[in-house]
Amino acid sequence: MRAVGSGPEAVAAFLHPRPVGELHGIGPAQERTLMTYGVHTIGLLANLPEATVQRVLGRKAGRLLSERARGIDRRRVVPAELPHSAAAQRRFPTDTLAPELVRSALLSLAVELGERLRRRRQAAKAVTLTVTFVDRTQIHRSRQLPGGPSAHTDDLRDASYDMYRALGLQRARLRAVALRCEQLVDAAAVAEQLSFDADREHRLRAEQAIDALNARFGSGTVGPAANYPRAG
Asked: How many distinct structural domains can be found in the chain?
């Protein structure tokens, strides 16, 4: 897929050399008619007076195709629907028995997905944890977020920790873990509940500051200390 600049020069450079038959909305009969008049490219069509194109192709079609040849499209832009879920996975370098490594992976997943949801202004109603064992078998566990839809890292982390702890996998070797945020909704429609937990309020304010820094300097620039290796 090629990206085209929004300036008139960039649009013209992309459109004008192309065959007139590639113009969006043109039919085979219209293409043949233009070809009989020597109009082989979109650029030639764009350089014709609109009145001339209307006489050749008809008033409505002539105006429409003349405008599109010049990069004008009056159709309403409809934003693409946001995804209904968001997922991420962590594969361990070697199969592991260590709960602390699994928790660290789950934390990094919560950080990544929380940031992604907040950037898209979405919130998740539910979270699904997938654990992959060394023989490639998997266990899936899902949980509704108890406080309602959320995109906060703390809520996603706590849900993933609870699901992992409930599995009781003390002696099972794991190859990977994955987290999926599901039943996504527009965050603007989610009422933020008042909290009397001062620590949580501090963390949420810190989360906003972290998001701003990561948006400016790149995702992962700032995050929980547990996600970064200790200096040797």
From this structure: 2
Q: Taking residues 176-185, what's their average pLDDT?
A: 94
Query: Is residue 3, in this structure, part of any structural domain at all?
Result: no
pTM: 0.58
Mean pLDDT of the chain: 84
Q: Which residue has the tokens 């934390």?
A: 107
Identify the residue whose tokens are 């309403």.
76
Does the residue 52 lie in any domain? yes
